[in-house]
Amino acid sequence: MPLLSSFSLRPRLTGLLAVVSLWAGSPAQAQTGKQSVAPGASAVAAIKETDIKRDLFALAGDHFRGREAGSLDELKASVWIADQLRAMGLQPAGDDGTFFQFFHIQRTRITETSRLNIGSHQLTHGQDAFLLAPAIASVDAPLVFVGTGTPDELAKVDIKGKAVAIQFSGTGPADISYRRFLFGTMSRRAAELVKAGAVAVVWVSDKEAQSYFERWTTGLERGRYDLPGGPNTRVFSQAPTVWLPASAIDWIKQPGQQFTNVVNVESFSYPSVNIVAKVPGTDPKLKNEYVLFSTHQDHDGVRRAVAGDSIWNGADDNASGCVATMAIGRAFAQKPGKRSALIVFHGAEERGLLGSRYYVEHPTVPKGSIVAVLNAEMIGRNAPDSACILGQQPPHRNSTDLVNAALAVNKADAHFKLDTLWDKPEHPEGWYFRSDHLPYARANIPAIAYTSLLHPDYHTPKDEPERIDTDKVTRIAKWIYLTGWDVANRPTRVGLDPGFKLER
User: Fold this and answer.
1) Does 281 lie in the same domain as 228?
2) Start and end of every Peptidase M28 domain (predicted)?
3) Do the Cβ atoms of 75 and 64 come closer than 8 Å?
4) How are beta strands 309-312 and 301-306 bridged, if at all?
5) d(CA 71, CA 77)
6) Environment class of 158 (CB within 10 Å of its CB; exposed 0-12, middle 13-18, buried 19+)
7) What are phi and psi of 6, to 5 degrees?
8) How many of the other CB atoms lie within 10 Å of CB of 128?
9) DSSP of 44-82, one letter per residue?
10) DSSP structure class, residue 39
11) Domain that holds residue 252
């Protein structure tokens, strides 16, 4: 995928927008016609499944190539979203009178010239071997195989000054997801072996780990991302940890092999963008406060082909949240609340919540004026009548007022069966910590997220618009909107629970 290399962002903003606008070539034109508003206090009738389905197939179709953060595809999709918001009648609320707030993301990866050899096998990072961290390393040492690395097996081998090959095994405790167990174990045990004298660690997948090797290693191939100066931008010289497929187990056992590794890293700076729009409130005083509707527009882009499909479209993650948020903006544009509605599409969420982290540190409205955050994250899959609120229960709940508002709307209107397990601190996926409401909650702004949770197509090319339940997206969009409408029109803002503190 063509990515933009490092450049000074502000001086070239005008030119960049012009280029991206030419590339945007919208597959679905913005709708400018006014819709009728149903009787009653709100404009919930303006949220229509026909609009949501049209926008979903436009945004999550192959035209935008998976909207990878830091690429022209993310910028093209962002321009398209801004065009839709403008046509709906929303006002720009980004930087310099635009809908955009640009920021840098920094990528650190292993260079293509890095070399890895084990015996007669010449391995390429990103294809048949993966290094778990972009760290500088130069190793030339004998390789020893220690089985699954039990204490008895390690006691038989002198590992000092050696590269240690070990086969992964185990499934981990019930309260930790296998993915977290896999990466956590490889990292922890590698550190223990290096402390004991190993100069490199080579993991070989077992049957269970192999499925994750095939599915999750595209992220390792790309390297690490962060905001400039963040912890993932730091590069160290350290013993390398290599991950091999299960097919390597036969030849990795052969004695007398040499491990030779020369690894260098390189860093790039790319632009990403938040899209920010508003609908001013009607109350002379309360319009200076904002109900923030949050989502993210990026996904994984073009990656390794699976069953012939190399575009990881991200229809549920998170085009579903985007089209719901667009529909919410359309409803507020038709009938504003007393408080202002602030709509934020965050860039680079998949790279570590980078857009929301940046916006919390550089808000385009006074941070203290943000009354609440209602985040939409993956709302189009699983059972039609099921959903989840993240931030519903302690220690994740930071506003009982906001949670009760959402629960009241669900009881009166949405009627979803609410999953409460995924919001618990002991849930193995740690789902609360993986979406854009989190930086706002850490900043002590009342925040919840609406989600329909994980499914087998998560972060695969099978996350296609045809698989989305657009009726469910529409009903969750109305649920979010009606909660926000309540918060926007209350005489006093929702409160922050005293003593709020996350478990990590």
Assistant:
1) no
2) 274-480
3) no
4) antiparallel
5) 10
6) exposed
7) -65, 135
8) 14
9) GGG--HHHHHHHHHHHSSGGGTT-BTTBHHHHHHHHHHH
10) S
11) 112-263
Q: Are residues 275 and 259 located together in one domain of the fold? A: no
Looking at the fold, whether 308 and 229 belong to one and the same domain comes out as no
278 in the same domain as 204: no
Structure tokens at 417: 């069966």
Q: Does residue 173 share a domain with residue 229?
A: yes
The upper half-sphere exposure of residue 465, i.e. CA atoms within 13 Å in the direction of its Cβ, equals 18
Q: Is 93 exposed, middle or buried (0-12, 13-18, 19+ CB in 10 A)?
A: buried
Residues 414 and 349: beta-carbon distance below 8 Å = no
Q: How far apart are CA 9 and CA 20, in angstroms?
A: 14
Contacts of 117 (CB under 8 A, 6+ apart): 123, 258, 259, 260, 261
Residues 6+ apart with CB under 8 A from 56: 315, 319, 320, 323, 380, 465, 468, 470, 473
- Contact (Cβ atoms closer than 8 angstroms) between residue 439 and residue 398: no
Q: Are residues 455 and 310 in the same domain?
A: yes
Determine whether 36 is exposed, middle or buried from the number of CB atoms within 10 Å of its CB (0-12, 13-18, 19+): exposed
Residue range 259-313, pLDDT digits in tens: 999 999 999 999 999 999 999 999 999 999 999 999 999 999 999 888 999 999 9
Round to the nearest angstrom and report the end-to-end CA distance of the chain: 35
Q: In terms of domains, do 234 and 280 share one?
A: no
Kindly report the number of other CB atoms within 10 A of residue 386's CB atom.
14
CA pair distance 177, 366, nearest whole angstrom? 39
38 DSSP assignment: P
**Same domain assignment for residues 297 and 422:** yes
Q: Answer yes or no: is pLDDT of 434 > 70.
A: yes
The CA-CA-CA angle for residues 166, 162, 254, to 5°, reads: 55
The domain total for the chain is 2
Rounded Cα distance between 84 and 194, Å, is 54
254's tokens: 């052969």
Q: DSSP letter at 233?
A: G
Q: Is the omega angle on the peptide bond into residue 313 within 30 degrees of 0, that is, cis?
A: no
Among 44, 6, 8, 143, residue whose Cα is nearest residue 478: 44
Q: Name the domain boundary from 214, 245, 263.
A: 263
Domain boundary among 263, 285, 318: 263
Question: What CATH number does the domain containing 401 carry?
Answer: 3.40.630.10
Q: What is the pLDDT of residues 362-380, one digit of tens each?
A: 999 999 999 999 999 999 9
CB 502 within 8 A of CB 352: no
